[in-house]
Design goal:
The chain has 9 helices and 15 strands. It is an alpha/beta fold. Strand 1 and strand 2 form a beta hairpin.
Length: about 350
């Protein structure tokens, strides 16, 4: 079995490039030659939380190399994006990666691999939050009445994708909390339907009062905390109505200071590889169609040079909070020792 280059993420973050065997796809799996890999904040966090290094990449954009038994939609040579199952072997920080066929989708010709690499984990996270945890109306059966939704951290990839999905589902008003990424968020919302942006840089009291003002007396039952650190969840807890839902994105954290009447849900996008496979299957294909139709847009990205070696810069930037309304991606072919 030939070898490939693979990046292992250690605490720090620090990256070590190793030679490992190219994985073999099992039944219902697709082997993808990774052209571009996306990065996510959890990629530097997990080695620290678990005290264990590993290939943490989950955002795959590339070309199908081989397929396992039962795979019917894909063949060698297809351009695809895919969501790798988290904390399993075969991640996207390598020349080749493994994905399940139900979280793999064809790429429209006009979408670049760099753009595609911004989508899988973040977009499916917001799918899981909006349509599983919050049980909001899906795009093909949109809302017919006012349904306030607060998205805390709207300039993040998960926040921006949630806003796009909410627009398609006719969910309004969308009340978004953002800072320096506000100009980007402005392009996603519809102020004619009550959508607005609250600037967190003005302080917690201004955030709480701003959200209440935007609600115009309506009760808040649906909130998505894309930050889940600092005061974000505390602020939302001050506004949510009894039995209102607060979905956070960091499943392994405690969230002290929330009122007892708040329904706290710790999201895990891993549900699309567990008990919500059909949700992942249907929505990932719908997002691919959204790219084709033009209503769904990839997140802005920045290519970090050096291929897999560049991951150390990308993950350090994420750890230090340098990213705003941008997603860091790496071109695997730029890695020393890899044929582009």
């Amino acid at each position: 079995m030939p070898n490939m280059k693979e990046a292992i993420v250690h605490k720090g973050p620090a990256i070590k490039i190793v030679d490992t065997a190219i994985p073999t796809p099992q039944a219902d799996q697709v082997l993808i030659k990774v052209v571009v890999s996306g990065t996510n904040p959890k990629d530097w966090k997990l080695p620290e939380w678990l005290d264990k290094p590993g290939n943490q990449g989950d955002d795959i954009a590339g070309i199908v190399e081989a397929v396992g038994d039962n795979v019917t939609e894909f063949k060698k040579g297809d351009r695809v994006m895919a969501f790798h199952e988290m904390v399993t072997a075969g991640g996207s920080y390598a020349e080749y990666a493994i994905a399940w066929q139900h979280t793999t989708a064809h790429l429209p010709k006009h979408i670049s691999f760099e753009e595609a690499a911004t989508i899988p984990l973040a977009a499916l996270t917001s799918v899981a939050v909006l349509y599983h945890h919050l049980a909001l109306p899906e795009p093909w059966r949109p809302a017919t009445s006012s349904t306030p939704l607060v998205i805390y951290g709207g300039a993040s990839a998960i926040g921006a994708y949630a806003i796009q999905l909410a627009q398609k589902s006719n969910i309004h008003p969308v009340i978004t909390v953002a800072g320096r990424g506000a100009p980007f968020v402005e392009k996603l919302i519809d102020r004619s339907k009550g959508d607005t942006i609250i600037d967190y840089r003005k302080g917690d009291e201004a955030v709480v009062s701003g959200i209440k003002e935007a609600l115009k007396g309506a009760e808040l039952f649906h909130s998505y905390d894309c930050v889940s650190e600092g005061s974000s969840f505390v602020n939302l807890g001050k506004i949510l109505a009894p039995k209102g839902k607060l979905v956070t994105v960091l499943p392994g954290m405690d969230y002290p200071g929330l009122p007892e009447h708040v329904d706290l849900i710790k999201n895990s996008v891993g549900c699309v590889h567990e008990d919500q496979k059909d949700l992942g299957y249907v929505h990932f294909r719908f997002l691919a169609k959204g790219l084709l139709d033009g209503w769904f847009k990839p997140h802005p990205h920045e290519v970090i040079s050096g291929g897999l070696v560049g991951l150390e810069t990308a993950l350090s930037n994420l750890k230090n909070g340098k990213a705003s309304a941008t997603k860091y991606v790496v071109r695997v072919g730029e890695t020393e020792g890899v044929s582009a």
